[in-house]
Design brief:
The protein is mainly alpha-helical. It has 2 domains: 1-126, Up-down Bundle (Four Helix Bundle (Hemerythrin (Met), subunit A)); 130-332, no CATH class. The protein is 73% helix and 0% strand. It contains 11 helices and no strands. The protein has helices at 3-30, 37-63, 71-93, 97-116, 119-122, 135-163, 194-199, 201-221, 224-263, 271-291, 298-321. Helix 3 (71-93) runs antiparallel to helix 9 (224-263) and helix 6 (135-163) crosses helix 11 (298-321). The radius of gyration is 23 Å and the shape is flat. The two termini are 30 Å apart.
Length: 332
């Protein structure tokens, strides 16, 4: 079997596996009592990840350069990144709901690349002169990994909004830690020290009453299982976006250095550069709100959900709207 036939088989296999995996995750969410469905979903994601990695490796051997020169290659690299981040997030969170939102996106991207793009767009071609640089691997791969991480983090934020039905609930899990009890910012923590209760009984009772009211308020909106799931999604979304943001920063810096080497200017306000900056600002605002203002729950989730659309505009939208310095091929 030559490399071209192997690639054709692998891209179709990746699509089929991701389609089955999506159905497994959805069935597992709908029928929680059926055993092994979550494990089969995780196995499907791992198999799809391996198929795509093999596809990209074969592409690399065939073309002789890192496979990120056209839309077909970048879509599969993006899917590989999404499945990789998915496996990490699912392992860290222990929640199979991660796959309910990530599997359809990964499957859709693979279907578009393997089944919709014309065969001429799927063929490896010699690099244009502007891409014949060692910066191709450094800049483009880091940017694509950042897109994958930010997309997964945003999808988890959307899942959080679905689980909480868009309600503004109070979360007790820490955004940074692994869980546990957490009060709102600037609210005194209750103490079991007898001296504190003797000297300030009214403040201690007030704290306990506020915690009781908050718990009752949350229980009216969500069941304990949903509240626990919401805390997990909020936490892991924050962590994944926290991974994607520095990757995006590194990718933008590497791109500026490459632009100066290729075009004699670090920044040209090209549409892709402009939207990369907008994407950076959106997620910088998200992390700023989480870290310095201690935002949790609905408000940062809405900001992250907005970031999902912004990432797609940065990745594909600007190439649909107009050509720029980054338009070396169809949509890329």
């Amino acid at each position: 079997m030559n490399l071209v036939l192997l690639q054709n088989w692998l891209d179709n296999a990746a699509f089929a596996v991701l389609l089955i995996t999506m159905l497994l995750y959805w069935l597992g969410a709908a029928f929680e009592g059926i055993p092994y469905l979550p494990l089969l979903g995780t196995a499907g994601m791992a198999i799809a990840n391996l198929c795509i990695a093999t596809l990209l490796g074969a592409r690399w051997l065939e073309a002789g350069y890192f496979p990120l020169s056209n839309l077909y290659e970048s879509l599969f690299f993006l899917t590989w990144g999404i499945t990789t981040i998915h496996l990490i997030a699912e392992n860290r969170s222990g929640s199979r709901l991660v796959g309910v939102v990530t599997a359809p996106v990964a499957m859709g991207i693979t279907a578009f690349a393997a089944l919709t793009l014309p065969s001429t767009m799927q063929q490896a071609e010699p690099l244009v002169p502007a891409l014949k640089s060692n910066w191709l691997m450094m800049h483009v791969s880091v940017m694509m990994l950042s897109y994958a991480a930010l997309m997964v983090g945003s999808l988890l934020a959307i899942a959080f909004l679905i689980v909480t039905r868009g309600k503004n609930i109070q979360l007790h899990g820490s955004s940074v830690g692994t869980g546990g009890y957490r009060l709102q910012k600037n609210q005194p923590e209750p103490s079991i020290d007898n001296a504190n209760f003797i000297t300030t009984p009214s403040s201690a009772i007030a704290v306990l009453e506020s915690v009781k009211i908050s718990t009752i308020s949350n229980s009216e909106v969500l069941s304990p299982q949903r509240l626990s799931l919401a805390e997990t999604l909020d936490n892991i979304s924050y962590r994944v976006i926290g991974l994607g943001f520095p990757l995006l920063t590194i990718g933008i810096i590497a791109g500026a250095v490459w632009a100066n080497e290729a075009w004699g200017s670090y920044w040209s306000w090209d549409p892709k550069e402009t939207w990369a900056l907008i994407t950076w600002l959106v997620f910088a605002a998200y992390l700023h709100a989480r870290i310095t203002r201690s935002w949790q729950g609905r408000r940062p989730a809405i900001l992250a959900a907005t970031g999902f659309a912004v990432v797609w505009v940065c990745y594909l939208g600007v190439n649909l709207l107009g050509k720029g310095l980054h338009s070396y091929g169809w949509f890329f």
